[in-house]
Amino acid sequence: MGEEAVEFSLERAVVDTKGCKHSALDVGGKTYVIGTSDDGSKSSTVVKILDKLTQTWVVPTVLGTQPMLTNSQSAIPVNDEKILVIEKGVPLNESIWFLEIDTPFVKHQQKIKGMEVVSWSKGVIGVGQKPVVISGPSGVGKGTLIAKLMKDYPSKFGFSVSHTTRSPREKEIDGVHYHFTERSKIEKDISEGKFLEFAHVHGNVYGTSIEAVESVTDEGKRCILDIDVQGARSVRASSLEAIFIFVCPPSFEELEKRLRARGTETEEQIQKRLRNARAELDQSNAPGLFDHLLVNDDLETCYENLKKLLSLDNDKEDSDSIFTKEGKETASYYIVSKVDSEILLQSETDEAKNGATSSLALDLSSLSGGAPGRTRGLKIRSINSF
Ligand SMILES: Nc1ncnc2c1ncn2[C@@H]1O[C@H](COP(=O)(O)OP(=O)(O)OP(=O)(O)O)[C@@H](O)[C@H]1O
Ligand SMILES: Nc1nc2c(ncn2[C@@H]2O[C@H](COP(=O)(O)O)[C@@H](O)[C@H]2O)c(=O)[nH]1
Predict the structure, then answer these.
(1) From the CB of 142, is ligand 1 less than 6 Å away?
(2) Residue 8 in contact with residue 59, Cβ under 8 Å?
(3) ipTM
(4) In 61, 230, 298, 326, which residue has its Cα 20 to 30 A from 113's Cα atom?
(5) Which residues surround ligand 2 with Cβ inside 6 Å?
(6) C-alpha to C-alpha distance for 187 and 124, rounded to whole angstroms
(7) Could you tell me where the beta strands, DSSP code E, fall in 65-173?
(8) CA–CA separation, 153 and 173 (whole Å)
(9) Is the peptide bond before 372 cis (omega within 30 degrees of 0)?
């Protein structure tokens, strides 16, 4: 744990050290100082914590995708678990960040790392559609069904590109089908909290990075994950709200036939996959794990059933669009106050001062997700005056 003397003075909410603006906030028995450090060549975001009882400073391990707080920022505690930080001078939908200081994710990381941990989570306006987890034994046809979906609805769905330590098959492209990676690299990234889930599957490591899922949702698409049952279980236990579908074969014999006909595995690998398939099929009915079971007997029938589950017969517009319009503005906002679950923001820029959006209310009542991924569900509305 990095304890050190720091030259901050904490008399005001914003402290100015060596020309850099820092926000200092009291939450519980601690003071959190958030700002930038400039070593001359590049600036980076820093977080330091003062334990007010012992008067010791700690530099915590910082997880999550970090903001580049190159401009000044304003901050306010949302509750005992997180601090809202708004960076000034960038479009609103790029400027909202949460510093998680005592959420379940942060507590868990503190326990496993045995040190002070905080985590950044980017705030996103709107919720996006729930990702879809598709699981089932190797050879059942998950990839075939997903490929059909992506071909028919390229603007609606995006694939979560997993990382794996297995070797590429003929025609598999790095970055498209998988990120093919070294075991030491994936293990390092997992230990740094960059993965939503990972599992040892058929003798290799497979994992879904947080970025793989979040980048698809950021594009306004619904994310599809093709992962094994262990992975599905981990995602269920995570903060990601998703729909879980298990694809079953019509029979074990048919599964074996498909796996052999695919011709991508050695006999030894096929035997291993079939052994694992029995265990996966046993878990398909585990209470609270899968929302839907789909039998992939006739491919076209199964595909039609999958489309029904995903309501593709019902072409509703994404209701998020009504919340995202305001987020594109490049006004520079600062936090005025917190009223119930709303944060009131005031613009500093001239053009917004004269316009209808000089004041905004940021509604935090329906947040979802959170570190190590994005915090979604923010809503904003214009208000004329406070
Ligand atoms: N309904 C079906 N009837 C007959 N063959 C099928 C059907 N669905 C898929 N297949 C074939 O079965 C083989 C396995 O399918 P696929 O590769 O999609 O399985 P998978 O579940 O994605 O496997 P893995 O988990 O190993 O990636 C492929 O050759 C595919 O063409
Ligand atoms: N837990 C995870 N499982 C994954 C992931 N990506 C793929 N998989 C599963 O692995 C097996 C084998 O895949 P293959 O491409 O080698 O045939 C299959 O069941 C996939 O669903 C992942 O990121 N996490």
Answers:
(1) yes
(2) no
(3) 0.98
(4) 230
(5) 138, 142, 162, 166, 197, 199, 201-202, 206-208, 226-228, 230-231
(6) 29
(7) 73-77, 82-87, 96-100, 117-125, 132-135, 157-159, 163-164
(8) 21
(9) yes
